[in-house]
Amino acid sequence: VQLVESGGGLAQPGGSLRLSCAASIFTFNLYDMRWYRQAPGKERELVAVINGEDGSTNYAGAVKGRFTISRDNAKKTVYLQMNSLMPEDTAAYYCNAHRWSTDYWGQGTQVTVSS
Predict the structure, then answer these.
(1) Contact call for residues 15 and 8 (beta carbons, < 8 A)
(2) Which residue would you say has higher pLDDT here, 25 or 81?
(3) Over the stretch 17-40, which tens digit does the pLDDT of each residue have?
(4) Apex 92 CA angle, 50 and 84, nearest 5
(5) Strand pairing of 109-113 and 9-11?
């Protein structure tokens, strides 16, 4: 199983980026897909979740209203649209696939928000 993130990079404050995570999971549609982030010197934190069964979503308070998680089950891909970026969004972003006691992780993609 592989999760491959892409779309990270440098953005200015107020700008936007869209992260993608392509998964090689046969039963992708059954997995909850999550985005985490980890800033230097800080613990990894959950940013957004999209449920595998009903597509419901949840967000961390710090990103609610600015970030949107979505998925395309036909493409086995999950997205994180990030708008109104702030310097405190700077972190390595990781894709996670979760079902029951199974977790798969991507290698991470760096997002840097700076002027």
Answers:
(1) no
(2) 81
(3) 999 999 999 899 999 999 999 999
(4) 70
(5) parallel
Residues in the chain: 115
Helix, strand and coil in the chain, % to nearest 5: 5, 50, 45
For 51, the 3-state DSSP assignment is coil
Q: Are 37 and 91 in contact (CB under 8 A)?
A: yes
Q: How many CB atoms lie under 10 A from the CB of residue 98? A: 15
Q: Is the pLDDT of residue 1 over 90?
A: no
What is the residue type of 53?
Answer: E
Position 4 scores a pLDDT of 96
Structure tokens, 65: 């209203």
Close Cβ partners of 43 (under 8 Å, ≥ 6 residues apart): none
What integer best gives the mean pLDDT of the chain?
A: 96
